[in-house]
Design brief:
The chain is of the alpha+beta class. Helices cover 18% and strands 43% of the residues. It has a 13-stranded antiparallel β-sheet with strand order 5-1-7-8-9-6-2-3-4-17-16-15-10. A nine-stranded antiparallel β-sheet has the order 14-11-12-13-26-25-24-18-22. The protein has a four-stranded antiparallel β-sheet with strand order 21-20-19-23. Helix 1 runs antiparallel to helix 2, helix 3 packs across helix 4 and helix 6 runs antiparallel to helix 7. The longest helix is centred in the last third of the chain and has 15 residues. The model has no long low-confidence stretch (mean pLDDT 93).
Length: 368
């Protein structure tokens, strides 16, 4: 193998696939990046067997070939290379890859590409296309509500549902639920749903650079592929039955509170400074067109915040985990929200005022 490329293109490719390199593995080859040539492009691949990423970068191919290079050292080296033409070469019959950045060079021991797991290119005549800005917004507003506990894999994923031109994402950790809808550019022939790891969706969102780019989602029975630009990312799906989200969303409420998103976020964040010392609990009291937010710490003191609001319905009070409330308010783009309540023991629902495509449900905390 012998290729000539720019530092910029090589660094881009390495940084993209490095996200899928396995950090803990009994297979040494999974700690590496597969390099292979095709049609004057260098194809880079990494996988941890659950997530796989392919990216191609333009190069000048003098001799076709493939190899696997240890990711950590290779990425650190490429990051420190000078801005000069980079030549990557490997002599037939050897296990040494030479990185030449004239007049200097570094040789790295490589691994057998035949041992590298195949990252398939999923082929499906029926695929989903949607604008990348819509996708990134949906991911931002849902994945934070997934659970970090791998012992409950269902709750580490996001339920993705597609029917005709509507796409939905639902995430829950059993204490809260985030629900977002969007519109796809090209509909599927038949309805499709799957539970996709939250980690996968976050990685895809981070890799998308162009706001007006079209992202293609290729579904299968046990895997899903995301394609955009020169990148393809394939992920396993999570097996299991996702909770019925429609059953837990209240159909009505007794109290509606209209309030500025930033003003509420700022107040909750200040009150949470004291709540952190206990159980993250803050109390909300709604009366006389005023929202009073309180928290206290036996060691530090008490917080008291007041906001002017518009109330429709009964006066009430409720307590929430402040972190769950902050997460939602940071994800909402609308300047105002509607907080819907039905007493201190029923879930609260947050909706943005400027759109009807998002809903966030949060369970109350018992304070007595």
């Amino acid at each position: 193998m012998q290729v000539l490329c720019t530092r910029e293109n090589l660094l881009y490719g390495v940084q993209v696939v490095q996200r899928a390199v396995s950090s803990k593995t009994t297979m040494p080859v999974l700690s590496g990046i597969l390099l292979r040539t095709a049609n004057n492009r260098l194809l880079l691949t990494a996988t941890d067997l659950e997530l796989g990423i392919n990216v191609s970068v333009p190069v000048q191919v003098m001799e076709e070939g493939s190899t696997v290079i240890q990711s950590k050292f290779f990425s650190e080296l490429v990051r420190r290379l000078p801005d000069t033409p980079i030549e990557i070469s490997m002599e037939p019959g050897t296990k040494s890859v030479t990185i030449n950045y004239s007049p200097s060079k570094t040789s790295i021991n490589s691994m057998d590409p035949e041992e590298f797991p195949v990252v398939p290119e999923l082929e499906n005549s029926s695929c989903i296309s949607l604008n990348s800005s819509t996708f990134k917004s949906m991911v931002k507003q849902t994945t934070f509500a997934t659970a970090p506990d791998e012992n409950r894999p269902i709750f580490t994923g996001v339920l993705l549902l597609v029917d005709q031109r509507e796409i939905k994402m639902v995430a829950t950790d059993t204490h809260r639920l985030a629900f977002r809808t969007g519109v796809v550019e090209s509909p599927l022939d038949e309805p499709w749903q799957a539970i996709i790891p939250g980690k996968t969706l976050n990685e895809v969102s981070k890799l998308i650079k162009e706001e007006d780019e079209i992202i293609t989602i290729v579904p299968t029975n046990n895997q899903v592929m995301f394609k955009f630009g020169e990148i393809s990312l394939i992920s396993r799906l999570i097996d299991g039955q996702f909770p019925n989200h429609t059953q837990v969303i209240p159909k009505s409420c007794k109290t509606k509170v209209r309030v500025g998103t930033k003003a509420l976020l700022d107040s909750v964040e200040r009150a949470s400074l004291l709540a952190r010392e206990g159980s993250n609990v803050i109390k909300l009291v709604i009366q006389d067109n005023t929202l009073v937010i309180t928290s206290n710490s036996p060691d530090l003191g008490k917080a008291h915040e007041e906001l002017s609001i518009e109330i429709d319905g009964e006066e009430t009070q409720i307590a929430f985990n402040s972190r769950y409330l902050i997460d939602a308010l940071k994800a909402i783009d609308s300047e105002e929200i509607m907080l819907e309540l039905s007493g201190s023991l029923s879930p609260g629902v947050i909706r943005p005022m400027e759109t009807n495509n998002y809903l966030y449900l949060i369970l109350p905390v018992r304070t007595n």
